[in-house]
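== Folding the chain ==

***
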Amino acid sequence: MHFKILRNGSHIGEELMKFTQDGDNLRVDIHADMVVRIAGIPIFHYGASVVERWKAGKFLRVDSKVNHNGTRLSVLANQIPGGYAVESTKAGDYQYTGNPPMLPLTYWNKAILKSMILNVETGHHYKAVVNSPGWNKLPTAEGGTILAQRFDVTGKLHLTVWYDQYDQWSGLEFHVSGNEMFQKYVT
């Protein structure tokens, strides 16, 4: 999966996800890079490298490294009996056990909408509060459209995420000092 990242309509970065399947094992490598410029001068940089590991459809581990405008953050979560042990530069070390199960906030897996969401930047976890106002024609990175269902996530998080009829991640929108939009490359 590959996304163009826009801020207030201007191209500021890219996110690329690579999926490697080996039998029951799935590895997901995610790389995101954004630079916000004013008059050509960089005023904000965000870079993320995340590796997820899954086995037979079950989330096992996530290891993330984030550069949030010069602040280095990391999150490591490993499966333990009944949940996950989390180590985080921001949230500290803790264990999450119970229901709903925890999944990393990396958007590609629609199951996050019914899970406890692990923020891969901060290490905090949140229950998703989700509402779906319906289906939309969503712009793609190439200038076309894709039909996708909209989900508004509220509570601790405030974002909108879209999934197509095959439950594949198709777009993302949130607001942090501007309007950030992820548009999927579909060709």
